[in-house]
Amino acid sequence: MEFPNKTIMKINKQLKNAQFEYDEESKTFRIIDAESGSAVELNKVYAFAFMRFVVRMAQRNWLRPHKKLKKRVDIPPVDMVSLEDNELHNPKQMLFKEIKDEENLGIQS
Question: What is the pLDDT of residue 109?
Fold first, then answer.
């Protein structure tokens, strides 16, 4: 079935060293080298295969696990005082009492 108002598109993308073209009428994809002018023309089957290849490469590079940098662990100096061994109690520090009974908190079930 032919559509009367069918517009035929040509899609172009110009880059610094290459140009890409897709012609909807002939269903061809062209890659043109900007310096030498040489071109590769792919039909729709090979263009689709090339597109799948590019997407697969991009996914592989994107999803590849990156090398994790080893974290440098700080080694405490020998003369450093441990807080667990020397707990200092500041008399100005407020102490909190632990309440285990729910009735004292005003919680009702």
Answer: 53
